[in-house]
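Weekly puzzle thread! Below is a chain. First person to post its structure in token form gets bragging rights.
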Amino acid sequence: MHRTDAERIVISGIGLSAPGAEKLSEFRCNLLNGVSGISNIEARYMGTVHAGVCKFNPLRFQNKKDVRAGTRAGSIAIYCANEAIADAGVDLGSTNKARLGVYLGTTEHGNVETENEVYKISQFDYDVKFWDHYHNPRTVSNNPAGEVTVNLGISGPHYCIGAACAAGNAGIIQGAQQILLGEVDFALAGGVSESIRTFGIFAGFKSQGALAWHEDPAKASRPFDIDRNGIVVSEGGCIYLLETLESAKRRGVQKIYGEICGWAINSDGTNFVLPNPERQSECMQLAILKAGLEPGMINLVSSHATGTKAGDIQECEAIRKVFGADSAFPLVNNTKGFIGHAMGAAGALELAGNLPAFCDDTVHPCMNLDNLDEECLLPGLVVSEPKRMQDIRYILNNSFGMLGINSALLVGKL
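Winning reply:
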């Protein structure tokens, strides 16, 4: 499919904070060398749980007052946005900030702040004079994106996209669409999550029998493994600087991570929690079709792979339906074995970990896949060790979420 440079959306900057890594180079190194970002934390009312915790310094881009007034998700977003802008070489001083948009996917944002405030005033006989004065701006749905605009003085549009665990992909898609519509020249787009700051999400998964546990936290997240027993909850963020190829050439950008070639979002329309492989396969097929490609042209599928039995099996069924014959099957990996499930940031982080494959032709493996569930058998599954593949040109990034929201994002090598 022919597009002019003004119609081609590229990634020129990446900023991320993942469990165990605060830069893409460090994240990629961990993925290639089997380094886990999972540890133990203490969750209110629950005791010890496994979690993916970010270690970035919020004071790098914020002062202490702003950190206190803002949210954890906001701090993650600010860190990632500043890193993405610096990575892309964008000089904000000479950039029209009214033409820069911020589009961030989130999952659980406002309830985190409310839950913690209720707990705080419970220590004072529920006297609301102890309620945080910044509660309202902390809990509005646009908070993390809004905090980025305040921090950077951006006057263009901003909002958050609530798309459950498909939100990271959805944020990137929204950013690309807004550039193509002519609403902005640049987009800070991706996803953020502060999930581990609330006990509710841990309790919710535990009540469903879907909260992972293992004596060794590094081995707790086990997508596609027969011995998996649930999800490891993580925080994190990943934000991309998007612009047209025409803009990147005009700015003299030397490093372009990839081109956003196609995307799709659809809905199962069938269940609150259980996935629908038919709708998932349709989502992948639509993204490939929009990119003007054939399934056999896809080199790598970054699977959603939560580490729950139903989720893993249904997604593998959907992937098999799309790619069919073994001879044309792409390589398949997943990232949650390393960092757990970063919810609204998951899709954006997982894509970032695979983008360097365009340069080094190496696909990172799945982690903790010691005993493959036969129902998750895929011809191209990368297990145990990284795998080299000549000329990786297209990556399909899957992210699916509760209430049956599915997203597929296709990125190509430029």
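Puzzle host: Confirmed. Bonus trivia for everyone else. The radius of gyration is 20 Å.
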